[in-house]
């Protein structure tokens, strides 16, 4: 499941490609036909992420300028709410003059990192066949797979496949969804004290709480494991037994790590001084990371990006003890029993 930084990248992508445009909205698959009919011909005026939820705001095409710029009341604003879940993905294609954005974000149909951009005009990539031509004429690609919703603008198209949630909601319903979510470390309005208070009043382990979207929004299994390691906190310790100063330090660290992930499209949690040693062999097990950290100038190699996530059985980068793993609330938890006491 994509972590919160991915959804913030999606929000930025929609702003870059479609902000202010009247969009043609359809449901090639047919399962979102009624919702598409509500949104079709409206203008996209907002693109927001909160945790793993993406909200796209639409107003009538002839809405006053003040409403288009987000300064007017919201009675005519409707929102497309999507949640990618385990299998959802947004896939983009654009004309030669479209801004450069990621080709696919989420669980794409082919393995592609978030750093990869839209195919260039004249690309020989067979996956991009029909999307762009060597001429200046853009041919809109045919939908591929079970496309729940398609957004078509002046210079680009976005297709959503396999989401857990895809619905049209009102502004009031959007606020109700947000009220059920914890603070988001990437958002400027993220409430650190609300996070500290929520963790501190619960007997539930802090490892479980970090995966609870009502406690903190956007943190997934990677950020959970890595932030707890960097803080030296035992993931199995009840939240109320973790010092508030440590909980606040975890929040502050998540703000830095997750915003960096949103900016660069990859999760890197290791400090420079803890990188460089070759990854020990563990019988040929391939690196189990979906993070595309290789290939870009100055990028951290993927086998050097994490401290403990999916490194069970390998030596801790700091103390050399074997990294541990156990199932916690249905997800694998990774930690160092020596560094996190």
Question: Could you outline the blueprint of secondary structure elements for this entry?
Answer:
Elements (H helix, E strand, L loop, with lengths): L3 H15 L5 E3 L6 H7 L3 E8 L2 E7 L5 H4 L9 E6 L5 E6 L9 E3 L40 E6 L3 E6 L3 E6 H9 L12 H9 L5 H4 L11 H11 L12 H21 L59 E5 L2 E5 L6
Antiparallel strand pairs: 1-7, 2-3, 3-4, 4-9, 5-6, 5-8, 7-8, 10-11
Helix pairs in contact: 1-8, 5-8, 7-8
For CATH, the homologous superfamily of the largest domain is named as MutM-like, N-terminal
Radius of gyration using CA atoms only? 21 Å
The first-to-last residue Cα distance is 29 Å
Report strand %.
15-25%
Assign the structural class, choosing from mainly alpha, mainly beta, alpha/beta, alpha+beta, or little secondary structure.
Answer: alpha+beta
Question: Largest beta sheet: what is the strand line-up?
Answer: 1-7-8-5-6
Mean pLDDT: 85
Q: State the CATH topology of the largest domain.
A: N-terminal domain of MutM-like DNA repair proteins
Kindly state the number of beta strands.
11
Task: Using the alpha-carbon principal axes, give the shape.
Answer: globular
Helix amount: 10-25%
């Amino acid at each position: 499941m994509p972590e919160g930084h991915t959804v913030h990248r999606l929000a930025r992508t929609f702003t870059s490609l479609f902000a202010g445009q009247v969009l043609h909205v359809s449901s090639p698959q047919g399962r979102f036909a009624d919702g598409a009919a509500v949104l079709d011909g409206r203008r996209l005026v907002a693109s927001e992420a909160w945790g793993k939820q993406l909200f796209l705001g639409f107003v009538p095409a002839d809405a006053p300028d003040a409403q288009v710029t987000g300064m007017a009341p919201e009675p005519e604003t409707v929102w497309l709410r999507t949640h990618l879940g385990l299998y959802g993905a947004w896939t983009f294609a654009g004309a030669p003059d479209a801004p450069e954005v990621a080709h696919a974000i989420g669980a794409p149909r082919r393995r592609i990192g978030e750093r990869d951009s839209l195919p260039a005009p004249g690309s020989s990539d067979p996956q991009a066949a029909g999307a762009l031509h060597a001429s200046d004429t853009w041919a809109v690609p045919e939908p591929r797979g079970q496309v729940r919703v398609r957004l078509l603008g002046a210079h680009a198209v976005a297709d959503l496949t396999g989401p857990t949630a895809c619905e049209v909601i009102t502004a009031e319903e959007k606020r109700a969804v947000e009220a059920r979510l914890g603070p988001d470390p990437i958002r400027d309005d993220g409430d650190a004290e609300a996070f500290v208070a929520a963790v501190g009043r619960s007997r539930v382990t802090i490892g479980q709480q970090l995966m609870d979207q009502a406690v903190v929004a956007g943190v997934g299994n990677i950020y959970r494991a890595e932030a707890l390691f960097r803080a030296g906190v035992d993931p199995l310790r009840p939240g109320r037994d973790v010092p508030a100063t440590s909980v606040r330090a975890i929040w502050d660290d998540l703000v830095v790590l997750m915003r960096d992930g949103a900016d660069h499209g990859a999760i890197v949690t290791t400090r420079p001084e803890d990188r460089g040693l070759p990854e020990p062999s563990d019988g040929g097990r391939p690196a189990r990371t979906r993070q595309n950290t290789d290939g870009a100038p100055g990028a951290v190699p993927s086998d050097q990006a994490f401290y403990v996530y999916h490194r069970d059985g390998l030596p801790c980068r700091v103390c050399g003890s074997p990294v541990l793993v156990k199932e916690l609330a249905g997800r694998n938890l990774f930690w160092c029993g020596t560094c996190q006491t």
